[in-house]
Amino acid sequence: MWKEATVVFTVVLGATGGVLSLFPGRAPAAQPALRASITSPTAIAATAEAPPASVRKAADGHFWAEAQVDGAGASPSRVKFLVDTGATIVALTEADARRLGLDPAALDYAIEVRTAAGETRAARVRLRSVSVAGARVEDVEAVVVRDGLDDSLLGMSYLGRLSRFEATQSALILRP
């Protein structure tokens, strides 16, 4: 029997206390909670329509995802991401942002973020799409991190928009 799970994400950004929204264009008070439920009709339909995608666990114990990302360039590029459910948003290194056609020098690094290496600044960007093993999500919120990020992170702004994801002992299963 499936049990319903509710997950709510709220992120306060920077010293100004801005709230990062997974529902752009709505006032924070009007933001619905992000709700993922295997019992919802949308989740059941998505599960029935699309086969699950899979990312194998690496020898280091992490899930590394090769994604096809359509950033701002003429054609999508491959980006290697560390899957990070603790990251609220997809985070790109400046090198990966450059390969996606974004100009890191022209970005507004207005957001204060905390990485494993300490505090740094990040700039908001939008990715046209992110696709991991066929699990494609359109219009993905992301940030480009100025310093302190060795690898790009596949965070919840992508994962939270899937109908379901699950970690097993050997793989991460993604359902579009």
3D architecture notes:
- Helices cover 11% and strands 40% of the residues.
- It has 176 residues and is mostly beta strands.
- The strands form three sheets. Strands 4, 5, 6, 7, 8, 9 and 10 form a seven-stranded mixed β-sheet that branches. A three-stranded antiparallel β-sheet has the order 3-12-11.
- A hairpin with a 4-residue loop joins strand 1 (11-13) and strand 2.
List the helices and strands and how they pair.
Elements: E1 11-13, E2 18-20, H1 41-49, E3 53-56, E4 64-70, E5 77-83, E6 90-93, H2 94-99, E7 111-115, E8 118-132, E9 135-145, E10 152-154, H3 156-159, E11 164-167, E12 171-175
Parallel strand pairs: 5-10, 6-9
Antiparallel strand pairs: 1-2, 3-12, 4-5, 4-8, 7-8, 8-9, 11-12
Strand-residue proportion: 35-45%
CATH topology-level name: Cathepsin D, subunit A, domain 1
* Global structural class: mainly beta
Q: Which percent bin holds the helix content?
A: 10-25%
CATH class, named Mainly Beta
Topology, number of strands: 12
Order of helices and strands: EEHEEEEHEEEEHEE
From the 3D coordinates, which CATH architecture would you assign? Beta Barrel
Envelope shape: globular
CATH superfamily: Acid Proteases
Largest sheet: 7 strands, mixed
**What gap, in angstroms, lies between the N and C termini?**
22 Å
Q: Helix count, per DSSP?
A: 3
The average pLDDT value, as a whole number, equals 79
Low-confidence stretches: 1-47
Rg, rounded, reads 16 Å
Our count of domains comes out at: 1
